[in-house]
Recover the amino acids of this structure.
């Protein structure tokens, strides 16, 4: 019992520690390909530390939601990522949870952020909130279809995280099965939309007409902003962990915990490279093109779903 | 492992034909087609290397790999880009059916292919059946792409995608056809492409646009 609590805490700190790294890697890849030197991979850490030291500026017209939202966002993201064991040995300590719970945890954080965006009464905040909720609503069908397809495997027949993990560990060889590839492609698109990366949202811009996530957090500063940024990094990690551990279950059944963690990190870095590659090859879509994007993700997920039942 | 990788590449080809349907610009069509051909070339490379290792004899499929790389990955996309640079380009809506609906139709086409291939008797191996389904779907999506685009260039791409689907079917189900058949197919393809390229110029010089809808209006 004591050991599992220790493992639980270890995993939490491990995930908190590595979460900003992947954003740093994506930025580095992008600047390398544009023949720039680029900021260090650890720049997101420095930014977070700097933000934590800075003072808070809170609008006098805002209500309690504005103050609470960053913490809610951070904690729901952290709770969501804690539902997924990163290494198989870490199972059995966290609550018996379900994949749908993870989705709703993320949605809860997002709702609070949207409310906080509206709270200060600035035009950009409201615009950002409405856009963020639009994006979330657009990719949700694909996300749910992916989860249902994973759970609809007759040998799992549940969306409980642990039955899915058990199955993934047993079938570590069926990595490139048709369904997993299709779901991986769909999940990659969902992940890009949910973590506000380039074809959907440009995280580095502050141009009024193109911001989605940034517009919502425009009023925040200091500690609050640090928690929001961290929440976004962790949310990205939730989707990456889902892809790495459930959709490519290679090396999940390692006996050695350190080897397991190494393989996990390697898989995340591969996914990061994929995301970086997509970012340098595309431009941000118009907001009205986003339904097309979401439909592609949905259709690929539908193909996976149909494959589960038709193609056997 | 070998089958896994082939399966991965075949599905990526199917996904790339879906992204082709979702594309809006001519340059994006060309890039997607190039990517798809590259995946096809990788498949032929893997098949030929595997058969060379197994039989310890030289396999002709490696020539197919070279042909695909030279023609479909390099020459045809470059020629196509040149064509699209030379004809007058106006950014306008290039499709009859909007993108979400066309994606849904493509999904329906894949289901149709499943249904059809599943009822073909004599396919005993389930992996062969899967490969047949993917390649037939690529052919169908190419056909749909051809009829859903207005511009002549998009229709050429649709034709080439159909060709890719046929190649995929031949490669995956038979481990490479005889050399002479493949060569015949290739030259057919190349001539068709050349003729269509000339047509694009002619349509452009006569109608000041490559929108094939304008062919309906009588000239002179």
């Amino acid at each position: 019992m004591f050991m599992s609590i220790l493992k639980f805490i270890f995993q939490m700190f491990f995930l908190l520690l590595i979460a900003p790294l992947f954003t740093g890697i994506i930025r580095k890849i992008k600047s390398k390909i544009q023949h720039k030197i680029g900021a260090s991979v650890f720049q997101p850490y420095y930014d977070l530390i700097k933000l934590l030291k800075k003072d808070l500026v809170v609008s006098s017209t805002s209500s309690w939601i504005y103050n609470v939202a960053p913490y809610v966002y951070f904690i729901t993201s952290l709770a969501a990522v804690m539902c997924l064991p990163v290494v198989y040995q870490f199972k059995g300590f966290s609550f018996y949870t379900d994949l749908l719970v993870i989705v709703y945890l993320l949605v809860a954080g997002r709702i609070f952020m949207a409310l906080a965006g509206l709270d200060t009464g600035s035009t950009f905040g409201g615009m950002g909130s409405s856009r963020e909720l639009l994006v979330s609503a657009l990719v949700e069908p694909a996300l749910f279809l992916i989860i249902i397809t994973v759970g609809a495997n007759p040998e799992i027949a549940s969306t409980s995280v642990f039955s899915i993990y058990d199955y993934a560990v047993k079938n570590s060889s069926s990595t490139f099965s048709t369904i997993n590839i299709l779901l991986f492609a769909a999940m990659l698109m969902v992940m890009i939309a949910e973590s506000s990366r380039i074809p959907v949202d440009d995280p580095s811009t502050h141009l009024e007409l193109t911001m989605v996530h940034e517009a919502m957090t425009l009023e925040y500063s200091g500690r609050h902003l640090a928690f929001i940024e961290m929440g976004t990094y962790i949310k990205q990690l939730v989707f990456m962990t889902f892809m790495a551990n459930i959709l490519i279950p290679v090396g999940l059944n390692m006996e050695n915990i350190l080897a397991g963690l190494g393989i996990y990190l390697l898989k995340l870095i591969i996914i990061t490279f994929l995301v970086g590659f997509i970012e340098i090859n595309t431009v941000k879509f118009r907001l009205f093109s986003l339904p097309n994007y979401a439909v592609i993700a949905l259709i690929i997920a539908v193909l996976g779903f149909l494959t589960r039942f038709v193609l056997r | 492992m070998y089958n896994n990788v082939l399966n991965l590449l075949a599905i990526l080809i199917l996904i790339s034909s879906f992204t082709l349907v979702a594309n809006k610009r001519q340059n994006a069509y060309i890039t997607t087609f190039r990517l798809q051909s590259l995946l096809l070339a990788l498949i032929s490379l893997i098949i030929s290397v595997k058969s060379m290792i197994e039989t310890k004899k030289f396999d002709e499929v490696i020539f197919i790999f070279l042909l695909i790389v030279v023609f479909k990955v390099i020459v045809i996309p470059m020629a196509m880009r040149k064509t699209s640079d030379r004809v007058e380009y106006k950014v306008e809506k290039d499709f009859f059916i909007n993108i979400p609906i066309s994606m849904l139709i493509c999904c329906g086409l894949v289901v149709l292919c499943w249904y059809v291939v599943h009822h073909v008797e004599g396919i005993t191996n389930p992996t062969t059946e899967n490969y047949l389904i993917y390649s037939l779907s690529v052919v169908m999506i190419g056909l749909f792409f051809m009829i859903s685009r207005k511009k002549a260039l998009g229709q050429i791409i649709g034709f080439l995608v159909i060709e890719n689907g046929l190649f995929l079917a031949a490669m995956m189900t038979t481990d490479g056809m005889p050399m002479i058949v493949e060569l015949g197919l290739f030259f057919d393809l190349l001539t068709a492409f050349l003729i269509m390229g000339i047509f694009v110029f002619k349509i452009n010089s006569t109608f000041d646009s490559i929108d094939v809808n304008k062919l309906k209006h009588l000239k002179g």
